[in-house]
Structures are given as C-alpha cells and as structure tokens.
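Researcher: For the annotation table, I need structure tokens for diguanylate cyclase. Please keep the output clean. Sequence:
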Amino acid sequence: MLSLDDLEPDHATSVSKHALQLMAELEVPATPPNFTVWFAYVLGRSAALRKTIDILRSNDRKFDKALNRELYNTFLKSTGSVGEVAQTISGELDAILVNVRNDVAGAIADSAAHSEELMEVGRTLRTANDPQLALKRLADELTRATERASALEAKLVEASGELGDLRKSLEQAELRSRTDALTGLANRGAMESFLRTAQINAMESGDSLSVFLIDVDHFKKFNDTYGHQLGDQVLRLVAKCLQEGIRDGDLAARYGGEELIGILPGAPLTITQEIAERVRTRIASANVKKRATGELIGQVTISAGVAQFKPGESFEALIERCDQALYRAKQSGRNCTIGSDD
C-alpha cells in the first residue's frame, strides 16, 4: 500500500490537494481506494499507473466505479505474489554476489600490495648479515599471502555456486507460481498480469489486441462417463492444441475449469478468429484414447468466443464480451467460433 511516511508534510499536503482537485474535475468518487490511486498518480512514483491514466484521460475515458477499482487492484493492492518475492530475493542475491566479489578483489589487491612491500623488505635485508634467513622469512610471508588469496578465491567459487543454485530454485518456484499444474499453460494470475500489460501497450501504441476464450463441449460427460482422469487427459490435449496453435509472443492460459484462453497482442479480430478456428479444427481432428485400456473415446470439440480490446476497456469488460461470444457459439450448436458483435 502507499505510504506517506517518507514524504515531507508540505509535499504530502500539496500532492493531496492536487489529487482531490483532479478527482473533482473527473468526477471520481472520493473514497479511500480512489484517493490512493490518484495520490499515487500525482506523486508519480508508478510510471505504469501514470502512463495508464494519461492514456485513459486522452481518450476521454470516464473513471467510473469499475475502472477505478481496476486501477486500484492492478497497481496498488498488495498481492504478495511469489513472483514479486522471487524477483526481490533475486535482486538481493545479485547484491550479495557483487559484495563477495568486491571483498575478494580487495583482499587480493591488499595481498599484492603486501607482497610488494615484502619484496622491498627482502631487497633491504639482502645487505644484512644473514641474507638467507631474511629471504626465507620473505618467502614464507609471500606463501602465506598467496594462501590467503587462494582461500578467498575458493570461497568466491563456493559462494557463486550456492547463489547460482539458490537463484535457479527461485526461478523454478516463480515459474511454478505462474503455471497451471494440470495443463502446463500460464495460470490465472499470470494471464491477468500479461493481459493488463498488453492492454497498456495497445493503448500506448495503437496496435490491436484480441482475446479468444474456449470451452470444451460436453466436458461434464467425459468426467461422468469415463472419470476425472480422462477429463484431465482431455484438458491436456486441448491445452496442447491451443499452445501449438497460437503465435510466438501470444499467451495461452487456463482461465478456469475447462475454459482456456488465448491472448494475442497485435492481432485484430479477424486474425484472432482465424487462429481460434485453427485451434478448434485441430482439436476436433484429434483422436482421444483412454490410456488405461486404449479404448477410443470419440471426438472432442470446443466452442470459442473472440473479442477485440477497446482502448480504455477494463479487464472484466473484455472478458465478458469474450464470454458472451462463447455463449452464442454454444447456443449455435457448439463446435464453432463466434466473434463479439460489440
């Protein structure tokens, strides 16, 4: 959440006044979450929030209840996601590794300087009465200095390996936190994050952005007739066809239950319909066999609804239009793709 602790009182007052003035001008209800959004906007610490609101204002978008809630949930509500934690820790590990390297480099430099000093001592002691003893002492000191440097270098190698293993574990944990365990596609959280970023980019660039939602036809029948294991097998098949049917840079995700979603940045409605239709036909042509017995189950089909993003449209509104198109596909006999009329 936004904190005022690190702001000077006069600056906080000025920012608050400006935020309230903007809220009044744009007819934004004066609620605590809304004030938090507009305070953060005026403060300017979130570049993504400022960019989004600037685009919405330039498009004369009305900041209604739904849009204000979307802004708050997207940019200011504390989620505590594993991905954010992993990213933070990963940055800390970088800092630790840099510190270790600097310590070793400094120690080696000190050792080299010390060795040079000892060499000078050696040159001086050569004129002494017992030069052999002086040189032995010098050699011993140089050996100890070299051993210290070697030990520090070994510690660096060990620390680097441990940090590398830990970072790899964190990256794997973050990947698991963003992946649906059953289908291997992006999960709901990763999908929402990707789509919101794609919406901002589309508004900024003016490029198209489209989404298609697919649902397995008569999915309950598979579970009731053949059991949940076959239902899971069907979902994995549909997920595989979806992933293989979209383009590089697109995202395939599990939206929920037997519903999957494809998000296509840069694609207009017509292109997205073609891709959704390609996925549909690929699924319909697949042969599904029960793994335990080899029994041929029959055809699996999906219905798909497609919608193109409208600048300033909320996440919920875009998905709702997609879902409405999907419903019309179901009503039209299933196993078809229908685009949004809106």
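Researcher: And a one-line annotation?
Model: Confidence is low (pLDDT under 50) at residues 1-5, 78-89.
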